[in-house]
Amino acid sequence: MGHLVGKDIFRSLGSKIDGLEMRTPWNDKLYAVLKELYSAEEADVVVRMPYGLSSLEELEKATRLEKNELRRLLDSLTAKGLVIDIWINEAYRYTPSPMVVGIFEFTMMRIGPNANSKEWGKLLHEYLNGADDSFLAANFGSGVRFSPFRALPHEEAIKPEQYCEVLDYEKASSLIAEANKFSIGICSCRHEKLHLGEKKCAIPLEKCSQFGYAADLAIRHNLAREVSRSEMEDNFAQSKEMGLVLTADNVQKNVRFVCHCCKCCCNLMLSISQFGYPNTVVTSNFLSEIKDDVCSGCGKCAKACPINAIALVDDENPGTKRKKMAKVDASLCLGCGVCALQCSTGACKLVQRGQRVIYPETTFERIMLQCLEKGTLQNQIFANPQRINEKFMRAFVGAFLKLPPVKKALLSDRLRSSFLNAMKDGVRRQGKEWVLDL
């Protein structure tokens, strides 16, 4: 196999990861991250891999590596979370990890004597939250609609008369009830902030929740420990008491993870509150509402809000003794409900938004929509980077899909279902129906 050397192989690796569902703009900080996490051999394998899920046999053809050598490198990459392996149809399928959810999370979930967590945390922080905020801008800038994350409302925060309108995928209790395997691992954000000396809370590190095949992956690679259903229920109950935001996988079916986020450590919350990217997390179908005539002006809700969407303002209503009252910025509110959990008067509750938020049904749909929005869908359609004819088609189709009118039309409410159905038909014609069930 003809190896690239030096910085060239890591530049190619950066380009490969940039072609997935999350963009990773190239700079020296990304180079430092990749050089620290991947060996040159590992980088070369990932560059040669197809973009989507591939069997071992398909990877042999694409990488031109002997099976035992390929297995050795894949074992190393999957153990580090740099390649994702999922057991489907009696075989493992492999795909390169995107930066998020993937490289960052799995790297900072790793522990043990060989984990260089302090250095990893520093390098990843400098890239993902750098002064130029290029990663945030590329993935969560103005107009972005599809994120890997959605806010999951605390059920106890919802106005009682509206609870019957809550769908199962909006309830943490239903997600737990429907899953068949559970694991809990270290929160990557809190672990990163711990090593940066920026962890200000007393929230435990071990909080991150995985379900189903994601739990299986995390357990196999020692990224999390397997827990029972009741232990997972306790984990969520503790998070409610601690006032943590529940941030879930942005799908309706087969939810893979739920993050338990605090305002001081969570990169998702900080990207909204400090960097000004409200599209980082898709809102829930609920909105915080405060009854002026019941609000005491105590400010507990404003203090609890992880993104500063609630402010205390002067009370100008005549005849009241309070000096301040709480006001919600509806354009920012995630609908997480942590504010209502802290309200002792019952003035603050979650109510339904005027327009329902429609989440992707499956991981397949979310990735297709993200890739279309990010300009990388052609890589999912023509996935093998080693085929010359596919290289031409990627360039041709990619240029077409990047045309603003085309992208806008396919992502519109009117054509989005037709677009997704066409993508599903293409997968079925390839005999890969199993992808649609993820």
Overview of this structure, please?
The protein is an alpha+beta fold. It has helices at residues 7-18, 28-37, 40-48, 56-63, 67-79, 99-109, 117-128, 134-140, 172-178, 188-196, 212-220, 229-242, 267-273, 300-304, 338-342, 363-374, 377-381, 388-401, 404-411, 416-429; strands spanning 83-88, 91-96, 149-152, 182-186, 206-211, 224-227, 245-249, 257-261, 286-290, 310-314, 324-328, 348-352. Helix 7 crosses helix 10 (188-196). The two termini are 33 Å apart. 43% of the residues are buried.
Features:
Arc Repressor Mutant, subunit A, Alpha-Beta Plaits, single chain, 20 helices, 438 residues, globular, 4 domains
Write the layout of secondary structure elements.
Blueprint: H1 7-18, H2 28-37, H3 40-48, H4 56-63, H5 67-79, E1 83-88, E2 91-96, H6 99-109, H7 117-128, H8 134-140, E3 149-152, H9 172-178, E4 182-186, H10 188-196, E5 206-211, H11 212-220, E6 224-227, H12 229-242, E7 245-249, E8 257-261, H13 267-273, E9 286-290, H14 300-304, E10 310-314, E11 324-328, H15 338-342, E12 348-352, H16 363-374, H17 377-381, H18 388-401, H19 404-411, H20 416-429
Antiparallel strand pairs: 1-2, 3-7, 4-5, 4-6, 5-8, 7-8, 9-12, 10-11
Helix pairs in contact: 1-2, 1-3, 2-7, 6-10, 7-10, 9-12
